[in-house]
Specification:
Bound molecules: zinc ion
Structural class: alpha/beta
CATH architecture: 3-Layer(aba) Sandwich
Largest sheet: 8 strands, mixed
Radius of gyration: 19 Å
CATH superfamily: Alkaline Phosphatase, subunit A
Shape: globular
Strand order of the largest sheet: 5-4-6-1-7-9-2-10
Order of helices and strands: EHHHHHEEHHEHEHHEHHEEEEEHH
Number of strands: 11
Distance between the termini: 21 Å
Number of domains: 1
Number of helices: 14
Helix content: 25-40%
Length: about 325
């Protein structure tokens, strides 16, 4: 199974594509930008297809489904009330919010085991069956309560390996610096994860992209859009790899989601957190050989971020409540016959 997260990628752009009201707030001449030319169109459906063509026209049309478009009465929410990254990722990875304990992005090592810890122990086949590759350095702390038991590689971290491709990516990432000291470019995260999967046939991996959030905080809307577009290409590349490899083809479940939403007005679109209640609304996409749902969810019951861990485990036939009885339950609609 593959979990992909796009930090702070909001429901507004995922379901509606380029938002001219937001773009205008950061650039009066936005209609002259390359991003506007590339991603603008008359309807939300056309705009999102220009922004993320593979995701919308192939993945969600032929292979999977997505929840969280509130205009279709599909709602996805966090159960944490903090609406920022560490609490969101911890809720995704451990299956439970802990607002009383995890209330800062600089929280030290996660005291709670993640579903990656659970799978690592369940698979019991050494350190390479489970892995985490992310752009943001905090994942070194978020992804496991037992650092060192499997590869968690985030930001500019490296680890000793004989893999030539991985060593070259490690060399380059230290020279191609992102604008934020705690974040490497998503390109490296993606290529490292792919190289690792090819080498080890990893059974469970989390790929954590980040740049969508940081460019939004910087109010660089052009780059928010470009990053979503680029990430769409990587998702396509990953999908094509999965289809080309007998170990993965027809037996790989993918969940694509986000740690938190964002504000919904031209005033607070770049922001999220406790004082931005709109940021509790997120989205989740599911691709699995065991699930026949396609396209957008409509008129469905609200689902929650704390259900992802148990859902991912259920896709591979495991019961996550063995590790955490308080975790959210598998998402019923995906498994309804
Ligand atoms: Zn943020």
């Amino acid at each position: 199974m593959i979990l992909i997260t796009l930090d702070g990628a909001s429901t507004q752009e995922i379901f509606g594509g380029l938002d001219a009201d937001i773009f205008r707030t950061v650039n009066k001449n936005f209609e002259k930008t390359a991003a506007f030319k590339n991603y603008n169109a008359a309807t939300p459906t056309e705009r999102r297809e220009k922004l993320m063509p593979f995701f919308w026209k192939t993945l969600m049309t032929s292979h999977g489904s997505i929840a969280g478009n509130r205009s279709l009465k599909s709602e996805v929410k966090t159960t944490n009330k903090l609406f920022f990254s560490y609490p969101g990722y911890s809720e995704i990875l451990t299956g439970q919010a802990h607002d009383d304990v995890i209330k800062s992005n600089s929280h030290p090592q996660n005291p709670y085991p993640s579903f990656l810890d659970f799978l690592h122990q369940k698979f019991a086949v050494g350190p390479n069956a489970v892995a985490e590759f992310s752009s943001w350095d905090a994942f070194m702390r978020i992804a496991t309560n037992k650092p060192g038991s499997f590869v968690v590689n985030a930001a500019y971290a490296t680890y000793p390996t004989d893999n030539k491709e991985i060593n070259e990516l490690f060399r380059l990432q230290s020279q191609v610096l992102a604008p934020w000291p705690s974040v490497r470019h998503d390109y490296f995260t993606f290529k490292l994860a792919m190289a690792y999967m090819k080498e080890h046939k990893t059974r469970a991996i989390h790929i954590g992209f980040d740049e969508t959030d940081d460019y939004a905080h910087d109010k660089n809307y052009e780059r928010v859009l470009d990053t979503l577009h680029m990430t769409d290409k990587w998702i396509a590349e990953l999908w094509n790899f999965v289809q080309s490899d007998a170990r993965y083809k027809g037996r790989t479940s993918i969940v694509i989601t986000v740690d938190h939403g964002r504000g919904n007005s031209p005033k607070d679109w770049s922001d999220h957190g406790e004082d931005v209640p709109e940021a509790q609304y997120i989205w989740m996409a599911f691709v699995s050989p065991d699930v026949q749902l396609r396209g957008e969810w409509k008129d469905s019951e609200t689902i929650y971020q704390n259900q992802i861990a148990a859902t991912l485990c259920k896709f591979i036939g495991l019961d996550y409540s063995e590790q955490n009885r308080e975790a959210g339950k598998p998402i019923a609609r995906l498994f309804a016959k």
